[in-house]
Design goal:
The chain is built from eight helices and ten strands. It is an alpha+beta fold. The protein folds into two domains: 134 residues, 434 Repressor (Amino-terminal Domain); 122 residues, no CATH class. α2 packs across α3 and α4 runs antiparallel to α5. It is globular. It starts with a helix and ends with a strand.
Length: 263
């Protein structure tokens, strides 16, 4: 897929949705929505925000977002001339060998790896864009959490790895935040966002159980098996508590990104 914007626009029109309908659901302006449909990704603060808007737009339309994000990344970082020539030669070889299946699968895996590494590098430096994203509401906290755990086991969304050893978080009592009664050995994270922030949470088995771009003014409650590893972008705009205890993010923050482990 070479044109993710046109794919989104075509599906929107097929569903008889106007620009105003989609812009209201995404909580973005008409100009931002038009820029997205015209592949004008330079209009946004960076690839992380482009990915977030495409993901939420695709959910509204009921289509897969992964191919659209991959196509957007090709437009954001087009291959060099040498890479294009090599790709052309590879395509010729594939056609001569009747599109060898193993080669196609290998290309897909390499593209996915490049996308994952790029997202991880951008997490620590992307500035917050003050534009609301769609606020996702959960009908039932525990059912929603269990569903996320099942989904993440099948197709985790890797966003970056930290090679440094992360110390356990220092916590202090917070009697004002209630914690849902849980099964033994589980932990509850409560996040409050005064500014827009990307958050990723992995459980004690290394599985990603939460990874979302969160708009200003929302609260998130995440349940998982400790130790829980967190990456929090724009950490100064996030308040965190763990099992009814407030966690100070300042000692764990570098260049606006907090990295810590809750046990």
């Amino acid at each position: 897929m070479k044109d993710p914007g046109t794919a989104l626009k075509s599906e929107r029109r097929r569903l008889n949705l106007s620009l105003a309908d989609v812009a209201q659901k995404l909580k973005i302006s008409h100009k931002q929505l038009e820029a997205l449909e015209e592949n004008n990704f330079k209009f946004f603060a960076g690839p992380v925000f482009v990915h977030g808007y495409i993901r939420n737009y695709s959910k509204i339309l009921g289509i897969e977002f992964q191919p659209l994000i991959a196509a957007a990344d090709e437009l954001l970082s087009p291959p060099s001339e040498g890479t294009k020539e090599a790709a052309d030669k590879d395509n010729e070889n594939v056609q001569e060998k009747e599109k060898n299946t193993d080669f196609v699968v290998l290309c897909f895996l390499i593209s996915f790896l490049v996308l994952s590494v790029g997202l991880g590098l951008l997490l620590g430096t992307t500035e917050t864009q003050r534009t609301g994203l769609e606020q996702i509401q959960s009908e039932d906290l525990l059912d929603d959490t269990r569903q996320k755990l099942r989904d993440r086991k099948q197709s985790g969304d890797a966003l970056g790895k930290n090679n440094e050893t992360i110390p356990a978080a220092e916590i202090r009592p917070n009697d004002g935040v209630p914690v849902t009664e849980l099964m033994e050995g589980m932990g509850v994270i409560v996040l409050t966002f005064s500014q827009e922030s990307w958050v990723e949470v992995k459980n004690g088995n290394g599985e990603t159980i939460f990874a979302e771009l969160n708009p200003q003014g929302v609260d998130r409650q995440i349940i998982g098996k400790p130790p829980l590893s967190l990456i929090i972008g724009n950490a100064s705009g996030v308040s965190l508590s763990f099992n009814n205890n407030i966690v100070d993010l300042a000692p764990h923050t570098r260049v606006s990104v907090a990295r810590l482990v809750l046990e």
